[in-house]
Design goal:
The chain has 332 residues and is α+β, with helices and mostly antiparallel strands. Helix content is 18%, strand content 43%. It folds into 2 domains: 21-97, Cholin Binding (left handed beta-beta-3-solenoid); 111-329, outer membrane lipoprotein receptor (LolB), chain A (Clam), CATH 2.50.20. It has helices at residues 2-22, 101-123, 203-208, 247-255; strands at 25-30, 33-38, 47-51, 58-64, 74-75, 81-82, 88-90, 93-94, 96-98, 127-140, 143-156, 164-173, 176-185, 188-191, 197-200, 227-230, 236-242, 265-276, 282-295, 298-310, 328-329.
């Protein structure tokens, strides 16, 4: 009985705290417009404010001018878009965030489950057509340098006698352009990395030496401060941001030894968007990462933007291979 009473008491207290958070202020209007009045009669001005107007646990973001009036259907002084209701709109969606920790936890659990299910379903497809664009900008004492890489991957029937794939990487770094192509067809692997070579190798052995990782959603470790939305096409959209703490650990869990110098970086911000189509497959993942690196008292800023498209997931994959002429045979 005592345990039941404790549960009821805690539940009641949580309900009261959540209600007070939802109704801590109220919208006011006069002939000049709308403003938000806090419980203590103050109001925000020249600032953004997250407000859960309808008490559903998810808050929208609004901008108030220097006189405290809500801006609507315009661009704010800092360059963001607000709709006719005054809510911040980004990439065609009203941005939201959880107004309390209980809603945040529920949305996070739901979003991570959606992502994991879509990731598993996508990775089990017999074939995929993907392209990934990576762009990095390095800023140091007013100077900016950029580097980019585009990978194109098509495959079908991995680990079977019918396996084929085409993998192309094009990179541009500090004025130097490079393209590397590798493909597997007819039981033969072709590559132009450090020369043009071919080798006959069975599909099961080839799986151990794939020049790419088996595609699978990789950004689940970053899913925090989640918003789940749906666009006009019926796609589910996961919008997220992550705190900088332990970000190097998360990145190392994905890339392993590929990023050995992460300890030299300080991460400041990460934002992303994941699109899951109506059939439950991942169709797009974007990630923006901001960091600084300090060495011997000098600091360099680094921004990284990744855009990964899964083209028509679930559809049959047709691969047009480059010419196989001019490749030197080597023994496997």
């Amino acid at each position: 009985m005592k345990k039941i009473l404790r549960v009821l008491t805690v539940t009641a207290l949580l309900s009261i705290s959540m209600a007070s958070a939802a109704f801590a202020g109220t919208w006011k209007q006069n002939d000049r417009g709308w403003w938000w009045q806090e419980k203590d009669k103050t109001y925000p001005s020249s600032t953004w404010e997250w407000i859960d107007s309808d008490g559903d646990g998810m808050a929208e973001c609004y901008y108030f001018d220097e006189n405290g009036y809500l801006l609507t259907g315009t661009t704010t002084p800092d360059g963001y878009t607000v709709n006719e209701s005054g809510a911040w709109v980004d990439q065609g969606l009203v941005r939201q965030r959880a107004a309390d920790p209980f809603t945040a936890q529920a949305v996070s659990q739901k979003g991570k489950k959606l992502y994991e299910e879509a990731s598993q379903k996508t990775s089990k497809l017999p074939g995929l057509d993907m392209n990934t664009d990576l762009h990095m900008t390095f800023s140091y004492e007013g100077l900016e340098l950029s580097a980019s890489e585009r990978t194109q991957l098509k495959y079908h029937d991995l680990n079977t006698a019918n396996m084929e794939f085409l993998f192309i990487t094009t990179s541009s770094m500090f004025g130097l352009d490079m393209t590397e192509t590798s493909f597997y067809t007819g039981g033969c692997y072709y590559t132009d990395d450090y020369g043009k070579y071919k080798m006959y190798i069975g599909p099961h052995d080839m799986m151990e030496y794939l020049p790419f990782k088996e595609p699978r959603g990789e950004f689940g470790v970053f899913l925090d401060n989640l918003q789940i939305a749906e666009d006009e096409a019926g796609n589910k959209i996961l919008l997220y941001s992550a705190e900088a703490k332990d970000l190097d650990k998360d990145l190392n869990s994905i890339y392993g030894e590929e990023l050995p110098s992460l300890s030299e970086f300080q991460f400041s911000q990460i934002n992303g968007r994941i699109t899951i189509n109506a059939e439950g497959y991942i169709s797009n993942e974007t990630l923006s990462l901001y960091m600084t690196m300090t060495e011997e008292g000098e600091t360099m800023g680094v921004s990284m933007n990744i855009n990964q498209n899964y083209n028509n997931p679930g559809q049959a994959i047709s691969i047009e291979f480059p010419s196989t002429e001019g490749y030197e045979g080597v023994v496997y």
